[in-house]
Design a protein that fits this description.
two-stranded antiparallel sheet; mainly alpha
Amino acid sequence: MGEAPEPHTGWTFITNHARVLAAIADDQNVRVRDIAAHCRLTERAVQKIISDLEHSGFLSHTREGRGNIYRIEPGTALRHPAEAGLTVASLLALLAQEEAHAAAPPAAKGYQRDDEDPSLS
């Protein structure tokens, strides 16, 4: 088994549950090992998160051969009262939009290099 990911200290904006859900949304046949590596979590932590998501109705899985096929329930409402009316689908759309934005070249993001800014001349 692989080495445990480097731990993170402090708080983050996106929870590990959201990260795992987004990884599954990217590939519904993904292995726990691959989710763990992508999210920088242990495999055991990912298994616990998947269990939490299944018990709360956000996710289900079916066994196919030696792997799982996950199914996200996109209409499930987010749990926090401040997100009343928002669904898993809206969260995943936001995360996917940000991921696409992060992968775009700097010019497509609206960033400008210092040497391109005429006011800095």
